[in-house]
Amino acid sequence: MKQALVQRLGFGLLFICITSTLFFLGLIIYFIFTRGISVISWVFLTQAPRNAMTAGGVAPVIAGTLYLTLGSMLFAVPLGLACAIYLCEYSPKGAIVNIIRMSINNLAGVPSVVFGLFGLAVFVKFFGFGVSILSGSLTLGILALPLIISASQEALLSVPQSIREASLSLGATKWETIKNIVLPTALPGILTGVILSIGRVAGETAPILFTAAAFYLRGYPKSVFSEVMALPYHIYALMTEGAHPDKQKAIAYGCSLILLFLVLFISGIAIFLRQRQRSYHG
Amino acid sequence: MDNKIKMRAQKVNFFYGKVQALKDINLAVHANCVTAMIGPSGCGKSTFIRLFNRMNELLPHTLLKGKVFLDDLDINSPLVDAVDIRRRVGMVFQKPNPFPKSIFENISYGLKVNGVREKDYIAGKVEESLKKAALWDEVKERLGESALRLSGGQQQRLCIARCLAVENEVILFDEPCASLDPISTAKIEELIMELKKSYSIVIVTHNMQQAARVSECTGFFLLGELVEFGKTQDIFTAPKDKRTEAYITGRFG
Q1: A118, A242, B45, B115: which is deepest, by most CB within 10 A?
Q2: A279–chain B nearest CA distance, Å
Q3: Residue ranges per domain, chain A?
Q4: If you write DSSP's letter for every residue of chain B in order, what string do you get?
């Protein structure tokens, strides 16, 4: 009798937790949606800003976010995957690898503004890439690296030892086994990690603050050495500077809405891939 | 035991860290015979057959003393590549372990990593291997389907077919029926009887009836020692060692 009561109380508590989480998520979406939807139009999505950002659209800003995200992944995915493969498959087990793992996990905990300063010092100044897509992408890439490494490591470790042994027992070399059996099996898990980190990178403001973002540009960036506008920073700029706060505020909410849906869409793909992975193994 | 010796263990001692898993084992596997290894769990029989295709060296902190020969080749000599040994000595594992790929790709994989590229030859070989493993009729309509959709018994026969496709000389079975039902077990046993015409076969089993049914020679392992090794008939009807007798009459294990 008493146990049943405790159980019901417990489940009730869990139910309250989950509904309140959903409530806040719903509230955010509702809030941003109602305030931002009024400015969303075809023009807003396809044209460049005009009249000191109070008219026109935000197309170059969206493009800038896409460039930065793509650039960061081009850099972080191969490097992160290679690190994960080395750590899981090749490195001798022992103290040194544990230290490497711990360092990578610590890297994930570094505040993003610190990455921004690091990017400024190293990519913008030391390498001389200037404030540019390249510097911003590299900085965001370093931010994404630990996420990609740990997601890939988990995916690789989840590949059963038994099918590695099967492959080796057929006369495959270690690399053939990794390339043909381990990586394809781990791929959905790796992709999930990559996509989640895309979501994270797309929304980051601090790392691009000093490395890539421009307050206002007339059009699209010309090369990887150009400054660029990006959604998160654009929102920040609209809310804090300029001479037409009311008009800018509406546009800022519009941008937030676009960014929110971009990230939700990307997470949706991640969930879809995970589902497919489950059904494949089941 | 008139056939020529195919594989031979000579004074084999094996260690996991400081724990000695195998003690001074001498044993010969003859060509075109089934050699069975029996014994209670943890007696070292699986560890022992994994020495025949150098699978144990994948585990950290292990040490092998003594020699293992394939024909007259010392397979652990520094001049010999483990990959070449595994191409000649195949293995079927305790739990069916098909790749998460299609049925066709599961079989063709071994050929591809061994450098075979001709599509017609691969297709022919896939069919031939599946036929030999008595699985062809059940899967010929759905070679493109994921191998993971097959039943446990079918998966195990697929793993045997996968092994046959690379045309090795010896096949090691590590408790191949441990996770299968009696009907699937009977099919695998039939298959083993058929395969010994062209292969040398070593099988580890918990099931003494199975050893009695399929093998010509039997070795009894206990606590890392090879207690007795001889013709299956002799081991089961007139064991020389008291411990063997106790085990096969079911007094322990």
Answers
A1: B45
A2: 11
A3: 61-281
A4: --SPEEEEEEEEEEEETTEEEEEEEEEEEETT-EEEEE-STTSSHHHHHTTTTT-GGGSSSEEEEEEEEETTEETTSTTS-HHHHHHHEEEE-SS----SSBHHHHHHHHHHHTT---HHHHHHHHHHHHHHTT-HHHHTT-TTSBGGGS-HHHHHHHHHHHHHHTT-SEEEEESTTTTS-HHHHHHHHHHHHHHTTTSEEEEE-S-HHHHHHH-SEEEEEETTEEEEEEEHHHHHHS-SSHHHHHHHTTS--
